[in-house]
Specification:
The complex is a heterodimer of chains A (about 550) and B (about 100). Chain A is mainly α. In chain A, about 60% of the residues lie in helices and about 5% in strands. The chains are: A mainly alpha (about 550), B mainly alpha (about 100).
Chain lengths: ~550, ~100
């Protein structure tokens, strides 16, 4: 390198100022009112950092750089402007992967002695940067693919996956150690480079494909943190102060964000890293948990929900089922069978409880309910007597309600129903109802995703409540309206040991007297665990189908 | 390890600690924009990509280094610009809604 235009002291001072600027930008971004300013401040600092680097390293005459910058900036701007709010999780994952990929290339260059001296320190760090960058790239790409539904969303586990993961890890470690020792001639360094890339790519992919359910938001956050770490390590390799500082900040704050989320859903980061994320339970275990689940629902139901009038519309009648419980469980496990086997049951349900009036919104409800009724039945009909009061229209319940809590989930986003949700809320507010929104920390596919979507639909963010602030209010609220949410309010999380959501704090929707559920179907959610709320005997009103349509109907009826 | 590398390690550790405490108690409303903002910042690796590419371009195999290094710059730049634009869109939306209420 030629002598710099100005002394390194000035350079380092400027780097420090820019680092502090970026730090301050992040700090501002954690305050709602100053966040726009914070983001722009960070962006400006970044731009100044690029200019500073070009000048200090005297590389500004190299035309290739500008070409690449222009291409990247245009592509980035197009992507940034055109992406929809609902696609945010995969966008963040994708961008994240690209950043990791760039860090990996920098690490690769440094490993070959470009931009760095071939000393043990920079060789170690460059090999490390290459590894972390590559695994971030592949992990993020897989995550983005899953979120964008290009790849199957279920957690994928195959035989020998664990072994393959360990082999990849050992290979990565070996290449780093060999590179660090410097025992390999520079001419053979490409061998290390290729092995390192392949092993890291395989590790990143293996790590990401087994993630499913509520762990997806955490994985994204973790990968985000990793891309910062990759940048910082690359900075260590090529002795770039600004890169080290900013990468470190991003890595650490990303890690903290990850941990905040882990705490929110009561999981240990380490467990997620080890892949203890997925359904490992056997079929038998599943069946037994299901049994207890059904019973527990009734228990918790009679515990916290005051017995209310039974409902005609889409209610769970006490039809006595002739089916053996095991039979039923088998059926329910495979929800596809529901339709074929439900006809006989639904007729039996009708004959034995002639009061079933079906002003149902969708015909399919009947079939599904017939099955679910049976489960509810089997679990004991203790509260039968209380149901024999009067029949009430769900609309009346909604009109009379003094306080309503809306629970949105990813389904709302898919159905693009946030605007209908807002209109329903407006309607209720006109009636003098207090409307609040309960946001689970991992509702949606990325932390804070629901908040952004509701904000897009003009919901005031003062009406959005975090789980810990609102969970006690479900018992006193008149109505809980669930829109496209499942796992985050599944009471099974409290007792279904061995399922992916076990132990995750959930919204206590089951404590509410009346629950309106606007879900697409009664199939298990992302985590694959059945929700016993669907089978609750009273006070549950299911509106199955596309949430924006079913909500529209309800709004019309109101 | 030279002095400069020692300083770098020190900076890394300090930055990590500061970063760790910086965003404590962020409202969950801001989790998504904060994550995407941070994501944009992790594209700071563009600085490394610029330097390395320039050096590689001047020295050994100009064509290959232009392609590989150019790719690194393009990737990092998409990360930076895309990330900041997306974050700005989200934040503007959130703040606008928040301000109207007051």
């Amino acid at each position: 390198m030629t002598t710099p235009l100005f002394s390194s002291y000035i350079y380092y001072s400027l780097c420090s100022i820019l680092s502090i600027g970026i730090l301050f930008g992040i700090y501002l971004m954690s305050k709602v009112n100053k966040s726009v300013l914070g983001n722009r401040l960070s962006a400006t600092c970044m731009l100044l950092g690029i200019i500073l680097t070009l000048i200090y390293n005297q590389i500004f005459p190299v035309w290739v750089l500008y070409l690449a910058i222009a291409i990247g900036a245009i592509l980035g701007a197009i992507l940034g402007i055109r992406v929809k709010m609902i696609q945010m999780p995969q966008t963040v994952a994708l961008l994240n992967g690209l950043g990791g990929g760039a860090s990996a290339i920098v690490g690769g260059f440094a490993l070959l002695g470009i931009g760095a001296i071939t000393a043990p320190f920079s060789l170690t760090t460059s090999a490390l940067a290459l590894a972390v960058g590559t695994l971030t790239l592949f992990g993020s790409l897989v995550a983005a693919g899953k979120l964008h539904k290009i790849l199957p969303q279920k957690s994928i586990i195959f035989k020998g996956q664990q072994a393959l993961t360990i082999v990849s890890l050992v290979l990565i470690a070996t290449t780093i150690v060999i590179a660090a020792l410097g025992i390999i001639p520079t001419s053979l360094m490409w061998l290390i480079l290729v092995t390192n890339i392949l092993a890291s790519a395989s590790f990143g992919t293996l790590f990401s494909i087994r993630v499913g359910g509520a762990d997806m938001p955490i994985t994204i956050s973790l990968l985000n943190s990793l891309s910062g770490v990759a940048g910082a390590i690359a900075g260590l390799a090529i002795s770039d102060l600004l890169l080290v500082a900013v990468g470190g900040i991003v890595g650490a704050s990303g890690l903290l964000l990850t941990q905040v989320m882990c705490k929110a859903i009561n999981r240990k980061l380490f467990d997620i890293l080890l892949g203890k994320t997925s359904c490992k339970m056997s079929q038998t275990k599943f069946a037994s948990t299901k049994n207890s689940k059904a019973q527990n629902t009734t228990a918790s139901h009679s515990e916290c929900a005051a017995s209310k009038a039974e409902e005609t519309d889409l209610q769970f009648e006490n039809a006595k089922s002739n089916n053996a419980p095991t039979d039923l469980l088998a059926k329910n496990t495979n929800s596809k069978k529901i339709e074929s086997s439900s006809k006989s049951e639904s007729t039996s349900a009708k004959t034995e409880s002639p009061s079933v009036k079906t002003e149902s919104t969708l015909a399919t409800n009947e079939n599904t309910l017939a099955i679910t009724e049976n489960i509810a039945n089997k679990s004991e009909s203790t509260s039968t007597k209380t149901e024999k009061e009067k029949t009430e229209n769900p609309l009346d319940i909604l009109k009379k309600a003094k306080s309503v809590i809306i629970v949105p989930g990813y389904g709302m986003a898919i159905a693009q129903a946030q605007h209908q949700v807002k209109r329903l809320a407006d309607k209720l507010i006109e009636n003098g109802t207090i409307v609040k929104y309960a946001i689970h920390p991992v509702a949606g596919r990325m932390p804070g995703h629901m908040n952004v979507l509701l904000c897009e639909a003009n919901v005031e963010y003062e009406d959005l409540y975090e789980m810990k602030d609102i969970n006690n209010e479900f018992a006193t609220a008149d109505v809980a309206i669930v829109v496209g949410a499942n796992d985050v309010l599944n009471p099974a999380a409290r007792e279904a040991v061995g399922t992916p959501i076990y132990g995750m704090p959930v919204l206590s929707v089951d404590c509410c007297k009346n629950i309106f559920i606007f879900n697409y179907d009664t199939k298990p959610g992302y985590a694959g665990v059945d929700n016993p709320l669907y089978t609750r005997k009273e006070g549950t009103y299911l509106y199955l189908g596309n949430a924006s349509e079913t909500l529209e109907k309800l709004i019309g009826a109101l | 390890m030279t002095l400069i590398q020692g300083i770098l390690l020190g900076v890394f550790i300090v930055a990590t600690i500061i970063g760790y405490f910086l965003i404590n108690n962020v409202p969950s409303l801001l989790h998504t924009p904060l994550m995407s903002g941070m994501n944009a910042l992790s594209g700071i690796t563009i600085l490394g990509a610029l330097t390395a590419t320039a050096i590689a371009f001047k020295s050994i195999n100009p064509v290959l280094s232009a392609i590989v290094g150019g790719l690194a710059i393009v990737l990092a730049m998409i990360n930076v610009v895309g990330g900041f634009v997306v974050t700005d869109r989200m934040l503007c939306m959130i703040v606008k809604k928040g301000g109207r209420k007051q």
